[in-house]
Design goal:
The complex is a heterodimer of chains A (about 260) and B (about 250).
Chain A (H helix, E strand, L loop, with lengths): L1 H9 L2 H15 L9 H20 L9 H28 L1 H6 L6 H27 L11 H25 L2 H15 L12 H7 L3 H14 L5 H25 L3 H4 L1
Helix pairs in contact in A: 2-6, 3-4, 4-6, 4-7, 4-8, 4-10, 7-8, 7-10, 7-11, 10-11
Chain B lengths: L7 E14 L5 H9 L6 E14 L3 E6 L5 H9 L6 E6 L3 E3 L13 H11 L4 H15 L14 H14 L4 E5 L7 H16 L4 E5 L3 H7 L2 E6 L2 E6 L1 H10 L1
Helix pairs in contact in B: 3-4, 3-5, 4-5
Classes of the chains: A mainly alpha (about 260), B alpha/beta (about 250).
Chain lengths: ~260, ~250
């Protein structure tokens, strides 16, 4: 089982790398500012949200400036949403390849997610600049970002595998996915703090695995206390979703070429 | 005749393959037709109990009308699709000569696409770097190699694709009709290259073509398919006599 899961990263490493490069390179070819869109896009989003939610609505975010609070949630959420949305369409877009050549099919959605991670890391550099500019101290708990990020990736890949395979059968999946992702964002403390959620609903609200992950990021960055119960819940759900996703994908990938 | 007596490179053993053809692709179409009691998909049988084998180093032409099952046969050999019953056993890696554009990304340059395409066919970085000059030279695209392939003509696409596939070091090569696109000179050059590969007996080549001349001059053996059944197998000349009569 483990060896099947790791196969794309061993025997097919170079193919994965090439497909990831293709994703990154092709997206901004024949555009004037090119790769800078990767930074400009989240920055513009950030400005709009921070105007609406710190000038108009004024969310309380303790001692952290709202824009930093927001960026810490918006950036990983953007990775989550962007990855799933792009990965969902990836198998359909690569149908000619699937019909012709034999390789582990999960490499296609993986390459999409990897390309999004590269974009994310570039935007994360800007975030560090913001942290410094707003004099937010770096805490030693920052190291916890790593396992949290890993948990987010497992969740992302699990969902991407299921949706990309489903989209080969019915194209409705890609539209449905985008709609649900938008709803999901407002069910997650991305633009507002968790403290605004009414206490009687909080336990229900926290079942969403992205709550634990995003709250975990903020705890790690801003040295807030960690809520280990919801973080562990998120990690468990992420692992489960990945395993289910991988299993479903591998069960169905033998007929991809017949229906693509 | 120089039929090598090794273990077969490709073996089809009682292979049956059918597809489900979905006419309705969206929920909106599917749900009413399910309510009306229509089956969710139509079954289309391509092969029923198909048996044959291809020896190592053999060059075999697959001949037949549209819909006879030629492409499905190649897909089964390439391992992208699987038989419903029976087994397909293939010894060694397979490189399909990818149809136009399939492995390419139109925004990337010819050069970048060589690496991409070769990686898809299972080559590693070092291997590609070693062969890149040879690949470019064979494609005759030196001048245009850094131009995005969306600016290429279909002939140029084919030349690039063929050039990559021919340089992949695999024991089994699948060629599906793509030769039809290049001009006469390049077609001849490809056939010469294939002839060269054939000479040193290293490769098993499966060749799907409607081009009688190409199959007769190049293949040791031809298989005539009709509605998923092998109705003639052997000397290309004889096979084409039967095909032309039908």
């Amino acid at each position: 089982m483990i060896s099947i899961i790791l196969r794309p990263f061993q025997s097919y490493k170079y193919l994965l790398l090439q497909l990831t490069q293709r994703e990154i390179k092709s997206r901004y070819k024949q555009s004037f500012v090119g790769y800078a869109w990767v930074i400009l896009n989240p920055l513009a989003q950030l400005l709009v949200y921070s105007f609406v939610f710190s000038v108009v609505f004024r969310f309380p975010t303790h001692d952290i400036p709202y824009i930093i609070f927001l960026y810490a949630g918006l950036l990983p959420w953007g990775l989550f949403q962007g990855s799933i949305s792009a990965a969902t369409q990836s198998l359909v877009e690569n149908a000619p390849l699937i019909r012709k050549v034999n390789f582990p099919r999960e490499i296609i959605p993986y390459s999409v997610v990897l390309a999004k991670i590269v974009d994310f890391l570039v935007s994360a550099l800007i975030f560090i600049g913001f942290m410094i500019a707003f004099r937010v101290p770096f805490s030693s708990t920052t190291i916890y970002l790593v396992p949290l990020f890993f948990s987010q990736l497992l969740l992302t890949i699990g969902i991407s595998l299921i949706l990309s395979a489903g989209n080969l059968f019915y194209r409705d999946i890609q539209y449905l996915a985008n709609l649900l992702l938008m709803l999901w964002m407002y069910m997650t403390p991305v633009v507002y703090p968790l403290s605004l959620v009414p206490t009687q609903y909080v336990w229900f609200y926290k079942l969403n695995p992205m709550v634990g992950i995003l709250e975990g990021y903020r705890s790690a960055l801003f040295n807030y206390p960690f809520e280990w119960t919801i973080i562990s819940w998120s990690l468990a759900i992420s692992c489960l979703v990945f395993l289910i996703g991988f299993f479903v994908f591998k069960k169905s990938d033998k007929i991809f070429a017949d229906i693509a | 005749m120089n039929t090598p007596i090794h273990i077969p490179a490709i073996r089809f053993d009682r292979v049956s393959k059918s597809y489900y053809l979905q006419e309705d692709r969206t929920f909106k179409d599917v749900i009413p037709s399910l309510l009306l009691g229509k089956p969710w998909a139509k079954k289309h049988i391509v092969f029923h109990d198909l048996n044959f084998s291809i020896a190592q180093g053999e060059t075999v032409g697959i001949v037949g009308k549209n819909g006879a099952g030629k492409s499905t046969m190649l897909k089964l050999i390439a391992g992208v699709t699987y038989p419903n019953t029976g087994s397909v056993v293939v010894q060694g890696r397979v490189a399909p000569l990818i149809e136009l554009g399939a492995g390419f990304h139109h925004e990337l340059s010819g050069y970048e696409n060589i690496f991409l395409n070769a990686a898809i066919l299972g080559m590693h970085k070092k291997e590609i770097e070693l062969k890149i000059d040879e690949i470019i030279k064979f494609s005759e695209l030196e001048e245009f190699i850094h131009v995005p392939v969306k600016r290429y003509s279909s002939g140029m696409h084919m030349r690039l694709g063929f050039s990559v596939a021919i340089h992949v070091d695999v024991p089994i090569l699948l060629i599906d009709e793509v030769l039809a696109v290049g001009d006469r000179d390049f077609q001849q050059k490809c056939l010469n290259k294939l002839q060269e590969l054939k000479q040193n007996k290293q490769k098993t080549i499966v060749f799907v073509s409607h081009n009688e001349e190409a199959v007769r001059s190049f293949c040791d053996r031809a298989i005539l398919l009709e509605h998923g059944k092998i109705i003639e197998d052997g000397n290309p000349k004889r096979v084409f006599e039967r095909y032309n009569k039908a």
